[in-house]
Amino acid sequence: MPESFAPAIQEGARAMGWKAVTLQGWGRSSSADCLAARPERSGEMAAALAPPGNRTLIAHGGGRSYGDAALNTGGAVVLTGRLDRILSFDPSTGLLVSEPGVTFAELLAIFLPRGFIAPVSPGTGFVTLGGALANDVHGKNHHGLGSIGDHVAWFDLLLPDGRLLRVAEATDPDLFRATIGGIGLTGIITAICLRLAAVPSNALTVQRRRVANLDDFLQGFKDAAGTAYSVGWIDALAQGAALGRGVLETAEASPHDGTFPSRKAKRFPIDAPGWLLNGLSVRAFNALYWRRASIVGQQTTASYAQFLYPLDAIEGWNRMYGKQGFRQFQCVVPFETGERALRRLLETIASAGAASFLAVLKVMGAQGRGMLSFGMPGYSLALDIPSRPGSEAVFAALERITRDAGGRIYLAKDSVMSSDGFNAMYSEAGAFRALRERIDPQRRLASDMSRRLKL
Amino acid sequence: MSSETWLILGASSAVARAFAREAAAHGAALLLAGRDMPDLECQAADLTIRHQVAAVPLRFDAGDLASHAGFVARCLSQAGGGFLNVFLAFGVMPDQADADADPTVAASMVTANFTGAASILAALAPALEAQGGGRVVALGSVAGDRGRKRNFLYGATKAALRTYLQGYAARLAKAGVRVLCIKAGPVDTAMTWPLPGLPFMVSPSAFASTAWRRARRGSGSTYLPSIWWPVMSIIRLLPTSIFNRLDI
């Protein structure tokens, strides 16, 4: 975490355990100067609710939101990573109670040897459980198991007024639904009860095959509807007849244990220079990736860590996009309008030459439980777009296409969506604002995202 | 039953927590001693679930000297098997200016960092001698090597602890108990969080894994991280006329 010390606020902040820091979203194109506290015991959390100088506050977990969801320029953040204790686990039910700072990688390391995993896992193991709940994250099995909020029995929430509530759907449905996917704006999550899933082994059987174009992809997803995990890697630079070509990966829990060498993450050594990622180099990489996959399909055995968190093998991979960083775009579009929308999205990206490595295509299942949950039935497309002059226009075009198709943009990734666009995409935005008005009339909780989207 | 038990004194601190995790990962049973019982309960649950070892929270107040004998008796009755080992991690670091201005702040720091440590170590000594083995690891500080303007009272308490540990080690050596004083540099914890610009900062987990390795091996004193050995060697040797002009 980069830190800068602004002497003016440093002086007063010292006794309170606050200090001036500069935080970045994972995409490194959003950053914020703010005060930060980092409590080490959940008992200290209440004190963190009152940052100096009446600043607003937002919780900040693993720092893996790509945009500005967990940033608070000129305000304060409370870092939850040190609250990382597992409080109880019942193997007969799979129910786990944990503090918010426990990460998915830790859960996997602790519970996979006992035959349990988080039922739903995002694409990196560095996400904390608190952050996962606040963004209602999903993974490669959304079509079957939904997002993380679907597996949460209850959570403890420290409200802006200092009350600590145990929130379950039965007892307080509004607060429960507002907090799942509520990007930290309803309170600070201090404990989570999550139902882990039993698995037969430590391994997955993975099928990979080359896919010629978008039609082939959508058919492939239909055929894989009964498979536990499915994900498509699209060469977002391919155009014309090859539009939407890529690699389809599906996986099922393997009945047999595998032996896997322990993965030691390599660190991305430098901020890559801007010229490295150009149309040519990315085009070459994407083409190579596509050609390496077998046409007829190839079956391998993979560890959960390899399959769920492929990029975690390179620590700090976000530096690949250089100092200016990148923004990630992820949307979901309903099945009915989806095929046409995907075509328009891919055409827009390809014709803008917005050099991006592989885009991720997924089929999503049910609507999430949260008011602002991202998940809904349809196709989800995610890709990185390096920050360059002109990329704003690309994002505006992508937002328009998504909105017109009746889809929505994922808040965990977003840093540029318009407030109008948000209101059109999230039908429960009004209910969410009404709940905030009730529990936080003074808007003590706020983030760069909440101001941008007028939440 | 575990092959050894570690008593963690001041178990709620981030360094102590990391050390307890390290010990539990190596199969040790834990006695978690401190004042914040709800926090210690969380920690005991975490260690038990993560590493499937016994972990027992125990109420302990370093400043309540009269309670130390009773505390040792409770420790011995709760110990989870094998030798009892001790990791002494408690301590406070208020501002030097606050300690200068308010003698009660100064006195409570001396009590917490030194008097309390000496008292509990003295109370534990007979039990350690009786078992004829085990280890004592205590958190000293590079601040104890030379009194600096910034925090010489804190440094003085850690220097006193270091001197105490030298004699304590000599006494327990006969019984086969090894004593290690870790001269710690800044660790990235709540204690150092608000302080700007601390050099060679290490994470609690990196600190703990090295501390664990050195605890298995050594006795005497050790700098952690090791870079502090050359740095403090130079700082100790600086002539007073130069040292006094430095703003450190």
UniProtKB/TrEMBL annotation, chain A:
FAD-binding PCMH-type domain sequence ranges: 28-199
InterPro entries referenced in this protein's UniProt entry, alphabetically: ALO_C, FAD-bd_PCMH, FAD-bd_PCMH-like_sf, FAD-bd_PCMH_sub2, FAD_lactone_oxidase-like, Oxid_FAD_bind_N
Keyword terms, alphabetized: FAD, Flavoprotein, Oxidoreductase
One Pfam family per UniProt: FAD_binding_4
Entry keyword Cytoplasm: no
Methyltransferase is among the record's keywords: no
Name recorded for this polypeptide: FAD-binding oxidoreductase
Organism field: Paeniroseomonas aquatica
Automatic annotation (TrEMBL), chain B:
SUPFAM superfamilies referenced in this protein's UniProt entry, alphabetically: NAD(P)-binding Rossmann-fold domains (SSF51735)
Pfam families registered for this protein in UniProt: adh_short
Family: Belongs to the short-chain dehydrogenases/reductases (SDR) family.
Protein name: SDR family NAD(P)-dependent oxidoreductase
The species this protein was found in: Paeniroseomonas aquatica
UniProtKB keywords: Oxidoreductase
Entry keyword annotation includes Membrane: no
Signal peptide span: none
